[in-house]
Design brief:
With about 70 residues, the chain is mainly alpha-helical. It contains 3 helices and no strands.
Length: about 70
């Protein structure tokens, strides 16, 4: 029975690692598009930066929810 617990713990860590790929990709796309918008229209830097940080916060919240769910459902 102890072997199953060890395997289960390892699978949980792998599952969260795979779940963290989505927010990582999301933040990369978000920052890239914000920088592209700033390069195209420099006078809108303040608005774009504010919206970028809000998007990053919401995307990171998804990663934290996934981490908490991993602890709750094990």
């Amino acid at each position: 029975m102890q072997i199953l617990a060890e395997i289960n713990g390892n699978l949980n860590a792998i599952g969260y690692g795979l779940a963290a790929i989505g927010p990582g990709i999301g933040i990369g796309v978000l920052v890239g598009k914000a920088l592209e918008g700033i390069a195209r229209q420099p006078e809108a830097t303040g608005v774009l930066r504010t919206n970028m940080f809000l998007g990053i916060a919401f995307t990171e919240a998804l990663a934290l929810i996934g981490l908490v769910a991993g602890f709750l459902f094990t």
